[in-house]
């Protein structure tokens, strides 16, 4: 972010950059801001006028004993009128500042959320989900506090202080000049506070982010935690992070306790002693106007009230600056999803896939794919098999443009995948994962993914096609049945069938199946194999399979080992070679035979 350091103490230059960048979000709301500051200025003038009207009453009426009714009623009416109007102005001012802040944060959250969706998979590989959630929610909320309270308080206090200084000079020039000595002292306290607090707030924000990450991880893996009795370990890890967050918070509280109210109160007492001493010495030579003394002390008290307000808000300001640095770090993240050099009007018509000399590395050091080449013609099925870590999923990731590749190329209908628009690729390529993801909503919404242009008939037709219609019809509300988080109320097989229906409903040219039948029971698998055969007709299909029985009819089977294609051919050709595929086939069938023997012996 323009050279701004992160996760360390922010320098004055860094903090100014972040502040100015945050202020750019106020540009679309100029008219509203002008109205809010006009109201603020009027309320400030009302605050300044109060003590001066009391001074007039004391010096012109009370002290001389001049109790003229009409002038006093007029003075009292003006004073009360100012106070009543000020109450209404203050209400509207606060509402307008809140409205501005909420609009700004609304815009900022949309930007952050949109940025997250545009990031490449590499970013999510290295960043915990809880940390991202913390930036979208907690950090933007801290920024909102700055716009709501800090800026309004600082500007109001600044205008108020300026008005008080003018009033002080109007009352007594010499004493007002003495009071200007206080400004460098107050600014020094503020500078010292900002210097140390930014370090503590950065630490607190990072610990809060870690807490969110640990919580998200625990909720996502609750079944594993309970099955393997990991509750104590997770509690300890969460407690350790929580303790560090507590320690960082205590450091900041101690700093607040020293440099905020107590330090300013000490300066105020010294200023009050100075003013009273001045009037005491002056009274030995000339008479002192009681009204002037009251007004000066009142202004002095009101001078330190906004200073205290500014100091108390300074902690919110520091939190907002630190939160802003974290949000902008996410917004400036360069790990984008692969860019498309889309050519206008280019469409996928046949779905022929050619992979030429493709090599790839996730970390830039170790290749997980090495010189991969093969062709999948329309209507053909190419199956990828191999042990875990052999590179099967990496081929899928590159084909779907989840990651960028720089060696070799992937062509669809003779054109590089980089040349197609992202919308065209997503529209013409259907992906079914081993662990399907279902959204909150209804079954119908999950099949058509909230594409309301898709008629309900097409949703039902797709469900019938993949054998999902039967179980959906048995649900309470059928296609309007509510889906909870991740579809946890459905069985693995039911979730997979809904995912199949979702893919078929878009009528893709290319099918990508990542072990799509792994979570389906044998009976359901037999039914779905028929559907898969129909799905593959006229479509190019790339299928990852661990169960070799599911891809025996594939036109081409590629056997991968450590990122390389070591064998290729049909099922019968590979068995005849008696290589790695043959060993895998024998292993799987041997296990099946032993399980069947065990069942027979048990019966």
Which characteristics define this entry?
single chain; 603 residues; alpha/beta; ABC transporter transmembrane region fold; Rossmann fold; 2 domains; four-stranded antiparallel sheet; 64% helix; 10% strand; disordered N terminus
CATH class descriptor of the largest domain:
Mainly Alpha
So what's the overall shape? Answer: elongated
Helix share, percent? 55-70%
Give the name of the CATH architecture of the largest domain. Answer: Up-down Bundle
Secondary-structure class: alpha/beta
GO molecular function, one term: ATP hydrolysis activity
Organism: Neobacillus piezotolerans
Domain ABC transporter: 353-587
Pfam family, one: ABC_membrane
Give a topology summary.
Elements (H helix, E strand, L loop, with lengths): L11 H12 L6 H33 L6 H50 L2 H6 L2 H43 L1 H7 L2 H39 L1 H6 L3 H29 L1 H23 L6 H42 L21 E9 L5 E10 L4 E6 L5 H8 L7 E6 L2 E2 L5 H7 E4 L8 E2 H6 L7 H10 L3 H5 L8 E2 L8 H14 L4 E5 L7 H15 L3 E5 L11 E6 L2 E6 L1 H7 L2 H23 L1
Parallel strand pairs: 3-10, 3-11, 6-9, 9-10
Antiparallel strand pairs: 1-2, 1-4, 4-5, 7-8, 11-12
Helix pairs in contact: 1-11, 2-3, 2-5, 2-11, 3-5, 5-6, 5-7, 5-11, 7-9, 7-10, 7-11, 9-10, 10-11, 15-17
């Amino acid at each position: 972010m323009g050279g701004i350091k992160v996760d360390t103490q922010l320098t004055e230059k860094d903090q100014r950059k972040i502040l100015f960048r945050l202020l750019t979000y106020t540009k679309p709301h100029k008219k509203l801001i002008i109205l809010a500051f006009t109201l603020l200025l009027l309320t400030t003038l009302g605050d300044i006028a109060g003590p001066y009207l009391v001074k007039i009453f004391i010096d012109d009426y009370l002290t001389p004993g001049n109790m003229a009714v009409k002038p006093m009623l007029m003075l009292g009416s003006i004073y009360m009128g100012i106070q009543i109007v000020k109450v209404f102005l203050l209400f509207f001012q606060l509402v307008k500042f809140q409205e501005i802040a909420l609009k700004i944060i609304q815009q900022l959250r949309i930007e952050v959320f949109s940025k997250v969706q545009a990031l490449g998979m590499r970013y999510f590989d290295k960043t915990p989900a809880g940390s991202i959630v913390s930036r979208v929610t907690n950090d933007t909320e801290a920024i909102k506090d700055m716009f709501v309270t800090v800026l309004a308080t600082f500007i109001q206090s600044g205008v108020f202080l300026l008005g008080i200084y003018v009033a002080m000079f109007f009352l007594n020039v010499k004493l007002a000049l003495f009071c200007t000595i206080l400004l460098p002292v107050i600014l020094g306290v503020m500078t010292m506070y900002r210097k140390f607090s930014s370090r503590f707030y950065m630490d607190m924000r990072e610990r809060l982010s870690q807490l969110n990450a640990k919580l998200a991880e625990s909720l996502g893996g609750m079944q594993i935690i309970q099955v393997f009795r990991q509750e104590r370990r997770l509690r300890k890890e969460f407690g350790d992070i929580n303790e560090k967050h507590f320690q960082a918070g205590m450091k900041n509280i101690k700093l607040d306790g020293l440099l905020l109210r107590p330090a300013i109160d000490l300066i105020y007492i010294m200023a009050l002693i100075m003013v009273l001493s001045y009037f005491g010495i002056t009274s030995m030579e000339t008479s002192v106007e009681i009204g002037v003394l009251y007004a000066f002390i009142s202004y002095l008290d009101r001078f330190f009230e906004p200073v205290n307000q500014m100091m108390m808000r300074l902690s919110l300001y520091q939190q907002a600056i630190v939160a802003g640095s974290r949000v902008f770090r996410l917004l400036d993240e360069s790990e984008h999803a692969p860019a498309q050099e889309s050519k206008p009007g280019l469409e996928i018509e046949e779905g022929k896939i050619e992979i030429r000399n493709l090599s790839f590395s996730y970390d830039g050091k170790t290749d997980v794919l090495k010189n991969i080449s093969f062709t999948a013609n329309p209507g053909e099925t190419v199956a990828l098999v191999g042990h875990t870590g052999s590179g099967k999923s990496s081929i899928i990731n590159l084909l779907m443009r989840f990651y960028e590749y720089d060696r070799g190329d992937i062509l669809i209908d003779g054109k590089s995948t980089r040349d197609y628009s992202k919308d065209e690729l997503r529209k013409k390529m259907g992906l079914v994962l081993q662990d399907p993801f279902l959204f909150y909503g209804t079954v119908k919404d999950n099949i058509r993914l909230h594409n309301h242009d898709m008629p309900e008939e097409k949703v039902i037709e797709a469900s019938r096609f993949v054998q999902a219609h039967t179980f959906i019809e048995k649900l309470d509300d059928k296609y309007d049945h509510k889906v909870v988080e991740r579809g946890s109320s459905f069985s693995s097989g039911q979730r997979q069938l809904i995912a199949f229906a979702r893919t078929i409903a878009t009528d893709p040219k290319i099918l990508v199946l990542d072990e799509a039948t792994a979570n389906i029971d044998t009976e359901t698998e037999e039914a779905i194999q028929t559907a898969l055969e129909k799905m593959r007709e006229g479509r190019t299909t790339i299928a990852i399979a661990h169960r070799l029985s599911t891809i025996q009819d594939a036109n081409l089977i590629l056997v991968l080992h450590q990122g390389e294609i070591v064998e290729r051919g049909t099922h019968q050709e590979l068995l005849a070679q008696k290589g790695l595929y043959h060993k895998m086939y024998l292993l799987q069938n041997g296990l099946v035979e032993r399980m069947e023997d065990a069942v027979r012996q048990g019966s």
